[in-house]
Each structure stands twice: as C-alpha cells, then as structure tokens.
Known about the structure:
Elements: H1 2-26, H2 28-36, H3 41-67, H4 75-88, H5 97-108, H6 114-139, H7 145-148, H8 155-158, E1 159-160, E2 166-167, H9 168-190, H10 199-205, H11 211-225, H12 228-255, H13 264-280, H14 289-301, H15 308-339, H16 348-355
Antiparallel strand pairs: 1-2
Amino acid sequence: MDKVFEIAQKLKWPFAIAMLAFLVYKYQAGVGELLRSQKDWGYFLLGFVLIAICAGLTFVRWYLLVWAQEFDFSLKDAFRLGGFGMLCNYGGPGVVGGDIIKAAIVAKNQQSRRAVAAATVVLDRILGLLALFMVGALATLFIDISSKNGGAASAAEQQIGPFGSIPMLDVVWWGLWIGSLGGAVGLCIMLTPGTTQWPILRKMVGLKYVGKTLGDLLNGVAMYQTKRRVVAVAVAISLIGHTGLVAGFYCCALSLKSAWVPGLWEHYFFMPAAELFASIIPLPGGVGPLEGAIAYFYQLSAPASVTTATAASIGLGAALAFRVINVAVSVLGFAYYSLTKPANESTVQEVDSATKKPERKPKLELTT
C-alpha cells in the first residue's frame, strides 16, 4: 500500500499538467483568441484584490476557531500558517492538501489537546464548505434554472444519471439546498448544549484506542457550545469570503473582454459545484479538475447564440486567469510565512518525521 501511495505522489503533477494541457489543446482556438485579444487589466487587478482579501478572511475565520479553544495562538500565526497552507495546496492532494499540513503543524506546536488543535482546521474547512453551499443556494433564487436546461449545450452534456434523465443543473440545485440545510442542521446540533453527553458518545469515549482522542474532541465541541457567537461570526465571515471570492472570479472573466460571460448570480450558482469537484479529485491545488468543471458549466450556461466550444473557451480562459491570481496570492502568503517564521516552530520536515511509521526490523538477524 505504501508503494501505491508513493507512485500516486509522483504522478499527481504529471496528471494535473496533462489534464490542463488537454483542456487547452481541446479549446486551443478559442483560448488563443482570448490570449491575443485586448484585456481589461482594471478588472484583473480588482479580481486580485478581492481574492487576496478573501484569503485573508479565511485566516481570520480559522483564528477565531482556534482562539475559542483558548490555545496560545495569535492572528499573526493564523496568517502565517494560512499563507503557507495555500501554497501547500499545490503539493498535497486536491485543494485541501494545505489543510493537512496546517493541522499537523498547529497540533505539533501544542503541548496538550493536539487532536482539538488539528480539528480546528477540519471545522474551518467544514464551515467554508457550508458557506459555499449556502451562497449557491441563495443564487438559485435569482436565476431561472429551467431556461438554462434548454441552452446551447447538447442534451447529453446537460444530463447525468444512469438513464440520462436528470439535467445536471437540477442536480446542482438539489445538491446546494440539501447541503445547505443538512449542514445548518448539523451545525445547530453540534452547538446545542448537552449533545456531547449523549450516552452513545460517552460509551465511545471508553474505547481502548480512540477513546482519549474522542474525549478531547467532545470537550472541544463543548467549549464551542459556550461560545456560539464565535462560530456564528465564523460562518458570517465564510459567507462574506465566498461571496467575494466568486466576485473575484467574475472579475477575471470580465477582464478577458469576451463577447459573452455568464452573469454574477450564475457564477454564484455553479462555482460551488466546480470547487467541490476540484476538492474531491486528488490532484494538487485542483489543477485541471477546477478548470475543466468551470469550462463545463460555462457550456451549460451558454445561450443559444453562443456555441459550446466558445463558451468552454471563455470559461477555461477565466479559470486560467483565476489560477494565476491564486498562485500569486499563495506565493505572497509563503513569503510572509518565511519572513516571520519563529525559531521554536516545528518545520514541515519535523512534522513529517514525527508522523512517519517506524521502519520494521527483520524478524531474524544474522550474528557473527
């Protein structure tokens, strides 16, 4: 199994580059035309500013979640490790690879309740995902899904399922609302006092190997229950952050000055599905899957007057501009991390060595 993971680690970037190269080759005519056309650099700069601010908001959100657990953790630490994690997304699987590194480092640098410290990263990601679904669900109130199902894309491209009878945009609509309502209910249950004392959970605390860790996590949840306003503020920050992030992507699309671009509410509708798709495909930073998903949804959103190839080219061009800005923000975040790194903080190498399994010794050794 270790050999399989080692091979997968080596092939992740070749797969990502190959997928991206395939998309560019498939729509090379349209992408080439966009590259040669005049750009609106004002929109591009506005997109950069919005995306950078929204990245900073995610760091503030994580800081609040860690602060609520009363750890020795400053806002500066959140920005440092958050910026480092953004760049690490391009080294780990999917767009959550940086979260794994952040969780490992923050847990390594805590003297106690390390599982809770690492769990703050998981909760931070969950709140971000919940906000993503909620923003998308809100967008469905401002667009007509039925008209989009009859656009320029072919019936085969618009439908999904074993019988090809479910329009893709309807699947996205239901997914957004189910995810939003389900996530909100789950969050309310988590923050309801007394849930950590449920008999089934208390019995699990007594388990031999995972009981102590589970007990620490339940105590962490209980602490959040006493600071529900902090969690509510974190959710509000998530909503503002994702609203600004999608608006930043929309600015990237407008900077291409193409003849057609989906509306802002349409971006709020399909971007959550595209980002979720990029998250579950284990390629670094979601490179390839994100661009492909956006090109696909641009096709589905295109009116009859715009060909699917043209729509996909515009979507791919906007996604590439968005990628350039994301990489630039990640590099700035890593620069801040490198320039402000304290001497007593564990390095990534130390975290890796601490989590690696010890080498097995042979059962029999020859002696002389």
